[in-house]
Amino acid sequence: MCSRKCSKCIGITLLPLAACAIVSNILLYFPNGRVLQLSEITDVVWFFHGILGAGILVILPAFMMLGGGGAGCCANRCGMLLSVVLAVLGFAGGVYCAVISSLGLIWGPLCDTGDGEYLYPFRNGTLEDNYLFNQTTWSICKEPENIILWNVALFSILLAIGVIEAILCFIQVISGLTGLICGSCMRKRKVGMQ
To answer: Which of 1, 18, 103, 144 is most buried, taking the most CB atoms under 10 A from its CB?
Structure first.
């Protein structure tokens, strides 16, 4: 397969993933559809891992990959090098999103435990008796309603998106390096040699 065709397929796949990551991250700011005070939003959300990491940092290489699928656009070495550099940027964005999402899942949400004060009831420094595996502890959080389910669902989606994007961008790095070293399409090289 030509590295240009591979780039185009990866680019087409990355765009909806990046859009889903941005939407998922934005939804984390509105737990259960409610508007909260800034001080009542889980701190990990402010790292913009879905908006910046899995969103913008992945959209840039996705557009380059889509443009690289055209005839002659990615056939030059400079275009291939730029594609590789942007794919590395996308890989970093996907990894960043996956790491921050993992921390969001492990640390748990900021919530009101019934006394009117927002705190992190599940940050105890250990993974023993983690709230993810013990749903009976979820009743600790009184406000916002269903905050734990909201955070677990959205952080899990962002974790999966980040991992998939990182894998796809890594594949593009390998494909781009192969195209950079060997030429953008092996079939054209064989035809040119005859």
So the answer is: 18
Alpha helices, DSSP H only, in the chain?
Answer: 3-28, 57-68, 77-107, 147-182, 186-193
Return the exposure string of 37-54: e unless at least 16 CB atoms fall within 10 Å of the residue's CB, then b.
eeebbbebbebbbbbbbb
Q: Which two tokens stand for residue 31?
A: 């737990």
Q: Measure the CA–CA gap between 78 and 83, rounded to whole angstroms.
A: 9
Give residue 175's pLDDT: 85
Q: What is the mean pLDDT of the chain?
A: 87
Separation between Cα atoms, residue 85 and residue 176, nearest integer Å: 9
Please, which residues bridge with residue 143 across strands?
112
Q: What would the pLDDT profile of 106-136 be if each residue is shown by its tens digit?
A: 999 999 998 889 999 988 767 677 888 888 8
Q: Identify the residue whose tokens are 């009542």.
A: 40
Task: Using the predicted structure, report yes or no on whether residue 190 has a pLDDT greater than 60.
Answer: no
